[in-house]
Specification:
The structure is a single chain. Helices cover 30% and strands 30% of the residues. It is α+β, with helices and mostly antiparallel strands. The strands form 2 sheets. The chain has a 7-stranded mixed β-sheet with strand order 1-2-3-6-7-9-8. A two-stranded antiparallel ribbon has the order 4-5. The N and C termini lie far apart (34 Å).
């Protein structure tokens, strides 16, 4: 099996992201499945997937034409278009990192990540994140996202990739603890 990590470049790729997302939405999984495989929380549609990267591209892992993993890019210029999950941005902007407010950095938001459970444990998330960083490190200072504290698998994978926890907080839109994690690309 030859998995290719690349930028999403077609509506077929975006539809593959939507299909994989749907299979891993928290609302579609049992508690046991979420504990074993992780989950995604927000549901994005085709229209939003097209505008959220603001002229850039999401990163995908493909086995042939099948999307088996993704890392979504959300340029902060599109934050105002969010409905669910938008409560993170006012909190995030006021946090400090290296004696500067986060809003002073040129950061990219990781809109969501997912790896098909049949491809888990093969380092795909790290490979996609490394591709993501190489593709956008000259454009952004760092990457940020938030991970549900209940999604232990995802948090562990983010930390392994190079993210660090900046803050644990009660996410206003979710009503549960989440970790804000950042990956510094400046060093």
């Amino acid at each position: 099996m030859d998995i290719q990590i690349t930028k999403a470049s077609s509506d077929q790729d975006l539809q593959g992201i939507i299909d994989l997302q749907y299979k891993n939405l928290r609302k579609n999984l049992t508690q046991e499945e979420m504990l074993a495989n992780g989950f995604v929380t927000l549901e994005y549609n085709m229209e939003f997937l097209k505008v959220m990267p603001a002229g850039n591209h999401h990163i995908v892992a493909k086995n042939g034409d099948e999307i088996v993993g993704y890392v979504l890019l959300m340029d902060r210029s599109k934050n105002h278009l969010m409905t669910a999950g938008a409560g993170i941005f006012p909190i995030f902007h006021e946090l400090e990192y290296k004696r500067k407010k986060m809003k002073e950095y040129n950061y990219v938001s990781v809109g969501q990540v997912c790896v098909d459970r049949n491809y888990a444990g093969r380092g795909l998330l790290t490979k996609m994140y490394n591709f993501y960083r190489e593709a956008y490190k000259d454009q952004y200072d760092l990457a940020m996202t938030d991970v549900s504290y209940l999604n232990h698998r995802s948090l562990k994978a983010h930390l392994k990739t190079g993210f660090q926890v900046l803050l644990r907080f009660d996410e206003p839109d979710a009503g549960e603890p989440w970790d804000i994690v950042i990956w510094d690309w400046m060093g």
